[in-house]
Amino acid sequence: MDATAHTPPPATATGEALEIRLDGVSKVYADGTVGVAELDLTFAAGELTVLVGPSGCGKTTTMKMINRIIEPTTGRILLGGEDVTRADPDQLRRRIGYVIQSVGLFPHQSVRTNVGTVPRLLGWDKERIRARVDELLGTVGLDPAVHGDRYPAQLSGGQRQRAGVARALAADPPVLLMDEPFSAVDPVVRERLQAEFLRLQAAVRKTIVFVTHDIEEAVRIGDRIAVMSEGGRVEQFATPAELLGRPANAFVADFVGSDRGLKRLAVTGIDPADLEQPPVLHVDDGLADARAALVRSGARWAVVLDDRKALHGWLSLDRASGSGTVREACRRMEAWVPADASLKTAFAQMLQLEAGWVAVLDGDRFLGVLTPESLHAALRRSVDGTAPEVAGAARV
Ligand SMILES: Nc1ncnc2c1ncn2[C@@H]1O[C@H](COP(=O)(O)OP(=O)(O)OP(=O)(O)O)[C@@H](O)[C@H]1O
User: How many angstroms is it from 109 CA to the middle of ligand 1?
Assistant: First the structure.
C-alpha cells in the first residue's frame, strides 16, 4: 500500500495523541510471579516507543496494564495526565487501539464490520461508520470495494494485519498498543508492513506502545526503545542511535548484538558537516579550463553542476582533455542519495555501484559527497550523540 497517497484520518480533539505515564506500577500474579516491579516509564505523546527484551521479561504484562487487560497490583497509570487506574475498563479500551499478532479479527464478520467495531460501540450513525471504514481501508492499502465484504479467512496474512491496524485506528484513538503485530508474517512482508506502518504513523502521530522481542524491528521502527530484563526492569530507555552507540551496560550490549555498529548505520542520518566538497565545474566550462582547475586543486575528479546548481554529472581527470565542453565529456552520476537518507542507504549505494563516493542532494541541489572516510567520521559522531538521527519512515 502507499499510505501517503491517501488522506490521513482527521486529527480530532478525541484523537490527539496523549502521553502515557506509568508511575510505580507493579504486577504480581496470583501464583506470586512478579511480572513487573515498580516500573516508572513515560511514553511521549505522538511517539512510537518499543518495549523489547528476552522472553518473559514483562513486556506484554506492561502493555496490557495500559488498557487494563491485566490489572496492575500497585501504582498508577496516567493517560494525558488523567489517572485511569480505576477508570471503567470498557470505556478505557475504546480510547485505546489494540493490535495483536494473531490480529484478532472476528472470523464471522466481514472486514467492514470488523473495522467498524469501535465506532458502532460508540454509537456512531451508519453513514458515518461506513465513510470512516472506507477511508481507513484506503489508508492501510485495502480497496473497500474488493476487500470490504470479504471475511478474514479470505485475506492474506499481510492484508489481515492491515485490516487489524485499520480496526485499531477506526475511532481515531489517542493511543495504540501493538503486541508483536508483524511477527506472524514472513520477513519480506514484515519489512513492507513496517515501512507502510511508519508512513501511516508519520501522518497520524499516535502515541504507540509496541512490543517485540526483535531488536532489528525495534531499531527500525522505534522513536524510543525500552530494553527490559526480567521482572520488567528497564535497563536502558533511549533512541535507537543512542542504544546502539552507547549501550548502558553489558546486558544491553549483549542484547543489541555485536553487529550494533552496522545496525547503527540504519538509524544515523547524514550531517552536512560530514560532507566533503570536491571541486565544482559548470556544464559549459571548456575542457582545458576544467583540466587546469582539477590539476590546480590536486583532485582526480569534480562534480558538474548546471545553472541552477543542480547536479549534472561528474568529470574525471582522464576525460578532461581535448577541446569541447564539460557537458560532452562528463558522466552521469549514478550514486546519489537524498539528504534525509540514512548512512546505511548511502553505504548500500556505494557498495552496489562500486562507487568511491556518493553525492548528497537536497531535491536536485548538490550538497556535497560522502566518501568511506566521511561515512566513518559520521558513524563516530553518532556514538558521541552529535549526529542526526533519521526519521522512522526513512529507515526502512
Ligand atoms: N497469568 C500469569 N500467571 C503467572 N505468571 C504469569 C502470568 N502471565 C505472565 N506471567 C509471568 O510473568 C512474567 C512476564 O510475562 P510477560 O508475558 O509479560 O513477558 P514477555 O516479556 O511479554 O514475554 P514473551 O516475549 O515471551 O511474550 C513471566 O515470567 C511470565 O511467566
Answer: 31
User: Do residues 151 and 166 both lie within one domain?
Assistant: yes
Condensed to tens digits (0 to 9), the pLDDT of residues 259-285 reads 777 778 888 888 888 899 999 999 999
Cβ-Cβ contacts under 8 Å for 80 (sequence gap 6 or more): 18, 19, 45, 174
Name the pLDDT band for 389 (thresholds 50, 70, 90). low
Cα 135 to averaged position of ligand 1 atoms, centre (Å): 37
Residue with the bigger pLDDT between 395 and 12: it is 395
| 182 and 289 co-located in one domain | no
pTM over 0.90: no
Question: Ligand 1 centroid to 30 CA: how many Å?
Answer: 12
Query: Domain end: 240, 265, 290, which one?
Result: 265
Cα–Cα distance measured from residue 252 to residue 225, given in angstroms and rounded to the nearest whole number: 11
**Which residue owns the Cα nearest ligand 1 atom 31?**
56
Q: Which residues line ligand 1 (CB under 6 A)?
A: 29, 31, 33, 35, 53, 55-61, 213
Q: Residue 198's domain is classified under what CATH number?
A: 3.40.50.300
| Cell digits of residue 20 | 502515557
| Count of C-beta atoms within a 10 Å radius of residue 242 | 20
